[in-house]
Amino acid sequence: MCENTLSIPHAETVKSNQNEILSKIHIDWQNWLVALRQNSNAVKELVSKSEDWRDLRGSGPFAGMTVVMLTTKMGSIEQLEIILARKPDLSTQDELGKTALHHLLERKGIFTGHLKKLLEAGAPINQGDVISNNPLHLAAAKEGVESLELLIQYGANLEAMNLSGKTPLMVAATNGRKANVEFLISSGADPLVESASGYNAWMFAARGGHEKILELLIQNSAYQIEHTEKMHLRNALHLATIEGHLETIKFLISSGLNVNQGDNLELTPLHLAVSSKKPESVDLLLNNGASAYLQDNTGITPLELAVMSGDLQILKLLLKQPPDAPLATSARENALREAAFQGNFNLVQELVQQNIAPHTKNINGQTAWIMAVSAGNNEIADYLASQPGPQALNVIFAAEFGFNERLSVLLKENVGVNISDVR
């Protein structure tokens, strides 16, 4: 009973919405919608009544569409033939700049019969919409090469770029259409063409996680796998890592990309995996030689970045890598100080349990305890006060700046502290 009761108002709402949409559509346009859902005879009847249909434009969800556009979008090939026999203007564009060809190629499925009829009727093959997508861009994004083949036969521009700077080949690579990529290259599309930002098909395939397309592209001996885009100087491995495409990351590493390569900010793939919160990518990169202790151009390591983002899972993965140099030890100590300042008790505890010295100071003379107290993180400060090691610097800081409660804890935990030890 409850389900039926709830479905009634829902059905009424849907019906009301449909009626509202239809009320905003010209009555003649409604007639065409009905006719196209019926049969060819219904379409013949409408075109035989008058020539007004040539100037008819849709509104609402059909903004600016013509009858021929509507027919390509939802009609049968027989219905399209009836309309094309009246020689409509196929270069007309709707409010988004789309022609009848655009609407056909955006239709779900493959309609090569419709496409051939439009091309034979002279539909403009290289006309772009408001974002400069031409019909070949749309066909490249779809499964199957049949539409591509027809468009190229009729003179489609293989290297036309849309407003995103993508050629049809780049669109195919972005969408993981391997067969389309292969066909476009065999038809003459240049796989080395770059967008204004320096992206090429290789980069788009990596960002989309399409390693099978990368395998295809790398067969071109002219391809440079180290290619970087222009804004951030990131290569394919950087892009795949940001998106967390594990199989693509494996492929790119096996192809020879440097796992510790920095971008224009010296951010390595591991930095990007940490900031993107991709633990599987972090683990994969670490297992393939990525360093948790390389600094970016501000001196931040992936380890410290994990602390800043408060990610305990990723921090634990990074801490598995032992410090192999003084800078690595320093990075671990910096991470502890940062965690204390951030007030993340779980991170502080994890770092201390890794035998990271809790009482070392940074270049400003601050220990992890001082940073915790300065930020008001008293629970962390008291936890650090209980750790073995020299506490004299912390005692002096507490006394000098009036942190009396924290001073009491320090003195209780460290009865034998000698303030004269402070240098």
Secondary-structure blueprint:
Elements: H1 2-23, H2 27-38, H3 40-49, H4 67-74, H5 77-84, H6 100-106, H7 112-120, H8 135-140, H9 146-153, H10 168-174, H11 178-186, H12 201-208, H13 211-217, H14 236-243, H15 246-254, H16 269-275, H17 279-287, H18 302-308, H19 312-319, H20 326-342, H21 345-353, H22 368-374, H23 378-385, H24 392-400, H25 404-413
Helix pairs in contact: 2-3, 2-4, 3-5, 4-5, 4-6, 5-7, 7-9, 10-11, 10-12, 12-13, 12-14, 14-15, 14-16, 16-17, 16-18, 17-19, 18-19, 18-20, 19-21, 20-21, 20-22, 22-23, 23-25, 24-25
Description:
With 423 residues, the protein is an all-alpha fold. Among the domains are: 23-119, Alpha Horseshoe (Serine Threonine Protein Phosphatase 5, Tetratricopeptide repeat), CATH 1.25.40.20; 322-423, Ankyrin repeat-containing domain (Serine Threonine Protein Phosphatase 5, Tetratricopeptide repeat, Alpha Horseshoe). The chain has 25 helices and no strands. The longest helix is centred in the first third of the chain and has 22 residues, at 2-23. Mean pLDDT is 92; it is low at 1-6.
* CATH-level-2 architecture of the domain at 322-423: Alpha Horseshoe
Q: What best-fitting shape do the alpha-carbon axes yield?
A: elongated
Mean pLDDT reading = 92
Radius of gyration: 32 Å
N-to-C series of helices and strands? HHHHHHHHHHHHHHHHHHHHHHHHH
What CATH calls the topology of the domain at 322-423 is Serine Threonine Protein Phosphatase 5, Tetratricopeptide repeat
pLDDT below 50 for ≥5 consecutive residues: which ranges?
A: 1-6
What is the helix content?
40-55%
What's the CATH C level of the domain at 322-423? Mainly Alpha
Strand composition percent: under 5%
Full CATH superfamily name of the domain at 322-423: Ankyrin repeat-containing domain
Distance between the termini: 81 Å
